[in-house]
Structures are given as C-alpha cells and as structure tokens.
Amino acid sequence: MKPFELRLAELHARNARHLKNLRIFADDQSRFMRLSQEEQSLILIQIEHMAQLDNVLTQRMKLHNIPV
Predict the structure, then answer these.
(1) What is the pTM of this model?
(2) Burial 37-48 (b: 16+ CB within 10 A, else e)
(3) What is the pLDDT of residue 1?
C-alpha cells in the first residue's frame, strides 16, 4: 500500500471507531441526558458530520481499491 493509501485507511478506521463510540454514548440516555441541551445538540451535529466523513473516506478507499 502506498503511504497516502495507508494514511487514508488509518483515518477511516480512526473516524469509524470514534463515530461508533460517540453513537454509543448518545444512545445511552442515562448519560446523554445529563448534558446540557446545547452539548447534546453539538454532539448530534458532530455525529452527522463524522458519518458524512465516513462516507467520503469509504468512497475514496473504493476508488483506490483499498479494502473497506
């Protein structure tokens, strides 16, 4: 794998892991509801953006024939 392909795969894996953990946290209502409304809103926006990034990185990896 070329260096940029390796970095792309690592970025995808790291983002996917963080996204998964953030979704788990947001789904845990007992913890999530303790946050302010503003913080909850920002986390949900962050999840949306991270999911979009995941899609973009997945498409780029496919473009370069990197296993997803």
Answers:
(1) 0.90
(2) eeeeeebeeebe
(3) 86
